[in-house]
Structures are given as structure tokens and as C-alpha cells.
């Protein structure tokens, strides 16, 4: 992610401001103070123009934030968590966890942002109607009304991942009943719109306006890469959500006596290309069949924290993570959720439990990746 500062939290969602946003803020304030305000409202002095420019830029930032909060609010209502809201050079992004489960939810989350922008445009427009005779109120309100209207319209361009592209995806999804098809159509629309921007940018440059042309090409290029990566991500998330841990886990796991020296584990298993972890049996080999829970788990990372010279004298139980402290996943969880749990705990493999809380397998990140790759190759 880009570097930036944290502004705080709203509804538990961290709000971030990327460093690139300060560039926009500076440029915007400067162009309002030296261009728009003095040209449209001559009666404002230089100081007032600069002051109003700063206030207007802050209100513009607030408008973008409210647009993103619109998406976030709907996502939370649909029981989808929002990881963060980030404001950067092209506006804002609400990072929503996972894909909506229904076309209706996708539509509501996507449309909420432009609706907020439209309402803001109307509100600032009304304010302008009321205060036309007072220049220091009229100037910012008409500019904010216009920019919010532009935000609403621009975001409704039907090119994924713009809001309009998401609305299009929801519509195709609703109409065909297939998320895959909808996702493909949306990705294509995103590419078309992106190349449209680039083409328009080139035309404008040929007509002599280098800055505006380059800006459009920049936006097009950004949309194109965003469309491609969102498509890949949606496809991946869809696959992960459609699979259960039980379908991918390994139902066997390496089990060693608790006193096994680390050197033996390394020689006999890990250095031979076997699994990079082992479970420690309760009471050596003769374990109680009704309790399949091991004593603990040992991974290559745990072993690597011990100096190699001590491996022959260090029993596995001394380095293991005890069962009670292990991060576990449920066999009935979907893979997306399981990967999230593993990601948060920063572990490469976890024991899998059934409904009776007994261990039934192991899930590793490597395995998940292999499964995804294989399924993509076989198109299943
Ligand atoms: Zn939006």
C-alpha cells in the first residue's frame, strides 16, 4: 500500500490519507485561490480567496470521504466488513472484505456512493440558491455543488471498478444468475472505458492540450490496471468462497513422539522434502483414540529459532506451540475465511477441527495455492 497517515476511525473503519492526496490538496487550493475565486468573484480579496480555497478543499475532501462512507455504510448493513477507507490522488477507495453474496447487495453497496455525492450536490446547490448575494458563501457552494455532481456522474461511468461498472455487474448478475459471466462483462466494460480515456487523452494532446490529455491517459491507465487486478481478485475470491476447508485439507498429518530431537525431525522429514511441520503425539504413539488432538505443533519456523548445534539435544516438545495456543480452522469454513484467519495469525498451516472439536486434517497455504492453480488449469 501507499504510505500515508491515519486520520482515525469511523464505525470502526480506519480512515487513511495517502501522501499523494496532499499533492491534490495543494494543487486544488492553489488553482481555486489564484484562478476560480478571483475570476468568478472579483469582490473577494486575495486573503479571502486563499482562505476560502483552503476551506473549499477541505470540504471537497469531506465530500469524497462521505461518498466512500456511503459505500461502507451499505456494506456494513449487508454484514460485509470494511477493512479501511483510503483517500488518494484519484479520490477514495473503501476496501470491502470479500464480494457481496447477492446481486442486490452488490447494487446497493455500489450505488450508495454516487447517491451520497448527488445529495451533496443538491445540498450545496440549494445553499448557493439561498446565498447568491453573499460572495464568500456563494463561491464555495456553487463549486462544491458542481464537483459533487461531477463525482456522481464520473463514478457512474459503467466501467469496472468504477461504481457504474459495479452496478453493471450487479445488473448482469441479476439478469443471468451467473456471477462469473457478470464479472467477465464488468471486466470488459472496465477495459473499454479505460482505453476510451486513453484514446480521448491522445486526441486532446494532438489538439494541443498536453496537460489535460496526459491527465486523461493517466486516469485511463489507472482504470485499466485497477480493472485487471479487480477482475483477478474477484475470480480468486469467488473460487475461495465456493470451496470448503474440508475439500482442500489433507486428512493425514505427520505425528512424532514428543521427545523426538529436532535433528531427527529435520533429517527424516523436513530436509527430505516432506511437510515442514509435525504434530506431537499425546503419550508417544499409544494415544487415546477418542481424543485425536495432539499435544502441540512444531513448524520449520519454530525449529529455525533454535541454533543448529542444539538440534540433537532439543526435544520437539520444548519448541512446539502447545495445542491450546494453536490457531485452528473449522472443516465447514469456506477457504476465504480460513485464509483470513491464517493471515491474521501469520501461520502457514493450521489444524482443522470438525463439529465435535476433534482434529480431522491440516490446511496449509501451499495446498490452497496448488488447489486454486489446478482448478484454474482444469477449469473446474
Ligand atoms: Zn464510489
What does this structure look like?
- This protein is α/β, with parallel strands linked by helices.
- It folds into 3 domains: 1-156, no CATH class; 168-242; 246-378, CBS-domain, CATH 3.10.580.
- It contains 13 helices and 11 strands.
- It has helices spanning 19-40, 46-77, 103-130, 135-155, 163-176, 179-206, 210-242, 245-248, 262-268, 300-304, 316-319, 335-345, 365-378; strands at residues 4-10, 13-18, 82-88, 91-96, 255-256, 277-280, 296-299, 321-322, 329-330, 349-353, 359-364.
- The strands form 3 sheets. Strands 1-2-3-4 form a 4-stranded mixed sheet. The chain has a 4-stranded mixed sheet with strand order 5-6-7-8. A 3-stranded mixed sheet has the order 9-10-11.
- The chain binds zinc ion.
- Zinc ion binds next to α2.
> Helical stretch count?
13
Oligomer: single chain
The major sheet is characterized as: 4 strands, mixed
Low-confidence stretches: none
Tell me the helix content.
55-70%
Which structural class do you get from the secondary structure elements? alpha/beta
**Strand segment count:** 11
Spell out the helices and strands N to C. EEHHEEHHHHHHEHEEHHEEHEEH
| Share in β-strands | 5-15%
Mind sketching the topology for me?
Blueprint: E1 4-10, E2 13-18, H1 19-40, H2 46-77, E3 82-88, E4 91-96, H3 103-130, H4 135-155, H5 163-176, H6 179-206, H7 210-242, H8 245-248, E5 255-256, H9 262-268, E6 277-280, E7 296-299, H10 300-304, H11 316-319, E8 321-322, E9 329-330, H12 335-345, E10 349-353, E11 359-364, H13 365-378
Parallel strand pairs: 2-3, 5-6, 9-10
Antiparallel strand pairs: 1-2, 3-4, 6-7, 7-8, 10-11
Helix pairs in contact: 1-2, 2-3, 2-4, 3-4, 3-5, 5-6, 6-7
Bound molecules: zinc ion (ZN).
